[in-house]
Design goal:
Blueprint: E1 8-11, H1 16-24, E2 30-33, H2 46-51, E3 59-62, E4 65-68, H3 70-80, H4 91-118, H5 121-125, H6 127-136
Parallel strand pairs: 1-2
Antiparallel strand pairs: 1-3, 3-4
Helix pairs in contact: 1-3
The chain binds glutathione (GSH).
Cofactor: glutathione
Keywords: Isomerase, Phenylalanine catabolism, Transferase, Tyrosine catabolism
Family: Belongs to the GST superfamily. Zeta family.
């Protein structure tokens, strides 16, 4: 929390994980932007490391704790700020939502980030070539 009492979201404007949390935040909060490519990556500062050992965004400072991992944050928000609901009350439907969320957060996103950071832009633009590039790396 800040002196104003508002939760703080540590995030990067291009981070899809940060967007996941921004969409879920239904109350007033402050943002601390971390530029992941400036200064060698501002997420690696000692100050941020003390808040989030993973040194990744998003991280939400709220209620005296700092939570990393977008899905852990949304789960906390679901339990502490139940209006509006983020998850269905019906447990079978909730399980389906969690499956989709896990596929995106744990399956698609890490590969997507890896592609962006390891693949030259011209390969990424031509998707068959990008896939070939992946294949030659044994992914
Ligand atoms: N599983 C995490 C992934 C977090 C993540 O990969 N964050 C990226 C931005 S989208 C990041 O901080 N990358 C910087 C780094 O790893 O150095 C989540 O869902 O929050």
């Amino acid at each position: 929390m800040t002196e104003s009492g508002k939760p703080i979201l540590y995030s990067y404007f291009r981070s899809s994980c940060s967007w996941r949390v921004r969409i879920a935040l239904a109350f007033d909060y402050e943002t601390v932007p971390l530029n992941l490519i400036k200064d060698g990556g501002q997420q690696f500062s000692e100050e941020f490391r003390a808040l989030n050992l993973m040194q990744q965004v998003p991280a939400l400072k709220i209620d005296g704790i700092t939570i990393g991992q977008s899905l852990a944050i949304t789960e906390y928000l679901e339990e502490t700020w139940p209006t509006p609901r983020l998850l269905p009350q019906d447990l079978k439907r909730r399980a389906q939502v969690c499956v989709i969320s896990d596929v995106i957060a744990c399956g698609v996103q890490p590969l997507q980030v890896w592609l962006w950071t390891c693949t030259p832009a011209h390969l990424w633009c031509a998707s068959p070539h990008a896939l070939l590039h992946l294949d030659t790396r044994g992914v």
